[in-house]
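Is zinc ion placement plausible here? Inputs below.
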Amino acid sequence: MSETLTIRRPDDWHVHLRDGAMLAGVVGHTARQFARAIVMPNLSPPVTDVAAAEAYRQRILAAVPEGMAFKPLMTCYLTDRTDPAEVRRGFEAGVFTAAKLYPAGATTNSASGVTDVANIREVLETMAEIGMVLCVHGEVTHADVDVFDREAVFIEQILAPLLAELPTLKVVFEHITSEEGVQFVESAGGNVAATITPQHLHINRNAMLVGGIRPHAYCLPVAKREKHRLALRRAATGGSPKFFLGTDSAPHAREAKESACGCAGIFNAPYALESYLAVFEAEGALDRFEGFASLHGPAFYGLPVNADTVTLERGEFMVPDMITAGETQLVPFHAGETLGWRFRG
Ligand SMILES: NC(=O)N[C@@H](CC(=O)O)C(=O)O
Ligand SMILES: [Zn+2]
Ligand SMILES: [Zn+2]
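Reply from A.M.:
I modeled the complex. Tokens:
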């Protein structure tokens, strides 16, 4: 049994770095493991134009700890009023790597999101024309759709019809959580891919609800039944280039999660690679880890793979109960659990 694993340096194709003191406290955890990351734009107010994205990019770079090389890839938050010309301008200037569709009300800071995809029709036509990736939070928000069904209903009502109308649009179905999500991406064309988070590979909804309600296991889309977790594990470890790493690391202060109305989001950045690797090892797929973590994402986005490598080594360690970001306490994914691989750098 090999004691170390060396792969091309990975990228995180979906992360929330926040802003201000929280940004300063969390960005190093991502920059330590990943060369690049798709930075989600759901700040308050959201990043909806080129000037805001460029300013945010500069704040991120200023917050990266000394000695770490890290390239934030910026995204444009789409609203009902997004100007197609602004999206084109940002993409052509190299500021926007992608644009993000948040259905209004679907998740954290999505109040200014899109109320009907018909409202961004021209933006999406422009994106299809210029080859720009649309990142999608794929959940409907109607009160009459059960929260556990919202991803499957989104595919049926929104995503499938959208791709039928714009068959060349490049789409990353973000943080998929269901068997339906896996099947949809597998049967779609090469212009459709998906990110998968570590938490959705590790936990099902029991982890959140059995023996007490566990706010640190709550994120959106919510973890689902065991059969969905197993479908996601098969997808992530199966070698298909349509599935790649996107942590969806989403820090919220401990007290904002341990609340009568706790925030959605799991902070997994500090041990992201260790967490994914535990899954690949359990599935007997260590040889497929590099593809998922470091090769499939760049290939889909049309970017070069990273030149340097990272090494993980076998060795048990316990994930701390708490990590601080400035004054703020964050409870990391796997808090208090033992993991079997360590990131060496
Ligand atoms: N995933 C989450 O549960 N939360 C994310 C938003 C998102 O990615 O939907 C956040 O920004 O907190
Ligand atoms: Zn989301
Ligand atoms: Zn997210």
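Short version: The domain at 4-343 is CATH 3.20.20.140 (TIM Barrel).
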